[in-house]
Design goal:
By secondary structure, the chain is α/β, with parallel strands linked by helices. It has one domain: Rossmann fold, CATH 3.40.50. The chain has 8 helices and 12 strands. The longest helix has 23 residues. It binds uracil. Uracil (URA) binds next to strand 6 and strand 11.
């Protein structure tokens, strides 16, 4: 099914409405993995002005991103608003910074609770941006890949969910208008940006054809053939969250983008072995790009 998320949002076409059961009569919805609910905090007062939800794997990195953003925009950074140890949530003006852990199962929980959070807060169309790290496929380390779409581990452009024993496939489109705007900002800021497909693997080692895992029942040549095949299909990086992220945000009708820096070129190796300073500089690149875009859009 083809659809443009931005148009869907504006026109309400194909956008799935929030589930009627969680918003039912007693209205006591509790966001278990965030550790708070509608009757434990005033969600509209705290989150009602949200315009952007920025997300990515590591809790430490997202605390840092929130602090950097606050410093740059000269606005306060909240304390960690999460009341559970699963995820951290920081807020800087209209931007929420929430980590999602590793892989689609963890991300899916964070997204569902974030969508419910936005719903309870009365936020109509938040923009979701994933800022992550990835393995490059034929691009040099440090490249920031702004994804054109997400591909699953079977190389299909869908997110596969198993529900009630049945396989459900959903589209993994991302917002082209948002992508183009982000790329333009990257160019302006002299950040090395590429666009291309992102492959979402189900694990870090065998699922990404690494040779440095504990198990490996394929040959080095198989790895290179696979990476070359991915590259020929337009894939520029591999991570572990893009299909779920693209599919959930599209289904909800929220504009979204995936902006991941590559930590290595998988054509040259498997081990992520970069000096700490270099790692920090790479981690800063998606942040610099996304922050410049958000500041341009919001005027803060
Ligand atoms: N994240 C991944 O999933 N793969 C990499 O190679 C690097 C980061």
């Amino acid at each position: 099914m083809e659809r443009n998320c931005r148009e869907a949002t504006m026109n309400g076409i194909n956008v799935e409405k929030p589930n009627k059961y969680f918003d039912g009569k007693d209205k006591k919805d509790f966001l278990y993995h965030f550790g708070f609910g509608v009757d434990t905090i005033d969600i509209p007062a705290v989150f009602g002005d949200t315009k952007f939800v920025c997300t990515g794997g590591s809790p430490g990195r997202f605390k840092l991103y929130a602090e950097w953003f606050a410093k740059e925009a000269k606005i306060p950074c909240s304390e960690n608003l999460s009341r559970s140890d699963r995820f951290v949530i920081y807020k800087t003006g209209p931007v929420c910074w929430i980590n999602h852990g590793m892989g689609t199962p963890s991300l899916s929980i964070m997204l569902v609770e974030s969508f419910k959070l936005m719903h309870h807060a009365g936020v109509k169309s938040p923009t979701f941006i994933r800022l992550g790290t990835s393995g490059g496929v034929g691009v040099p380390p440090g490249t920031v890949v702004v994804s054109t779409g997400a591909m699953n581990a079977e190389l299909g452009d869908t997110y596969v969910q198993i529900i009630a024993g049945k396989r459900i496939e959903r589209p993994t489109q991302l917002d082209s208008t948002l992508r183009e705007a982000l790329c333009a900002v990257g160019k302006e800021k002299n950040i090395p940006v590429e666009t291309g497909k992102t492959m979402c693997a189900d694990d870090f080692y065998e699922g990404q054809m690494r040779l440095d895992g504990y198990f490996c029942d394929y040959e080095e040549a198989d790895k290179f053939n696979f990476l070359k095949k991915l590259n020929a299909l337009g894939v520029r990086n591999i991570e572990m969250e893009s299909t779920c992220f693209a599919s959930f945000t599209c289904r909800a009708g929220f504009p979204s983008a995936i902006v991941c820096v590559t930590l290595l070129n998988r054509m040259d190796g498997d081990q992520v072995q970069i000096a700490k300073e270099q790692y920090i500089e790479y981690e800063e690149r998606p942040f610099r790009l996304v922050t410049a875009y958000i500041r341009q859009q919001t005027g803060i």
